[in-house]
Input
Amino acid sequence: MTTLLQLTPVECRVLGVLIEKESTTPDVYPLTLNSLLSGCNQKTSRDPVMNLNDAEVQAALDALRAQTLVSESSGGRVWRYTHNAAKGLRLNSGEIALIAMLWLRGPQTPGELRIHCERLYKFADVDALEGYLERLALRDPPVVLRLARQPGAREARWAHCYSGTPSNPAPALEAESAGPAADRLAQLEARVAALEAALGELRASLGAAPD
Output
C-alpha cells in the first residue's frame, strides 16, 4: 500500500492560493512572494484565517519545490511562483479544484464546494461533484474523507487527507452504502415469510391441501 503525501497546513495554504489565483487573477500569475503572502493571509474565503510571515511562506515554498509541486522563475526583479499540483498529485482539473477549496476553506458540504469551486471548475450539478469526491475517497489511500454529519445538518461535510486523517470521519462508503441495502433485504425476507405463513393458515382454514 502506498502512502499519501503529507503536507503541513502552511504548505496546503500556499498550494491552494497558487491554484486559486491561477484561475481568478491570471493577469498577476505567477505570483510574487508578496502576492502569495497576501493570498495566504486573506481574512475572507479562508478557514482557518492565518497570519503568516515571509519566512514561513518561503519555507513552505522551498519544501514544495523540493517535491516538484512548485516552480520558481525570475520575473523582472522578483521571483515568481507557479504550482504543479495537478500533475504532481495525479489529480484532474475537477479534483484539483476540490482539493484546493478544501485546503483554503476547510471541511465543506458538496453544495458549498460547488459554489466555491465555480471560478476554478464548473461541475454539472451537486451529484456530479459528489461523484468526484467519492472516487477520491475510494482511492488507496483515500485523498478525502466524508465526516460524520453534524446534529441538525442536512449534508455531511468532506475534508482532505493531505495533513493527516481528519477527525470524526463517517463510516466507509462501501459499508454505508451496503448497510441500508442489507436492511431492506432482511425486511423483504421477513415480509415474504409472514405472507407465506398467512397464506398457509388461509389454505388450512379452507381445507385446501398444503403445497
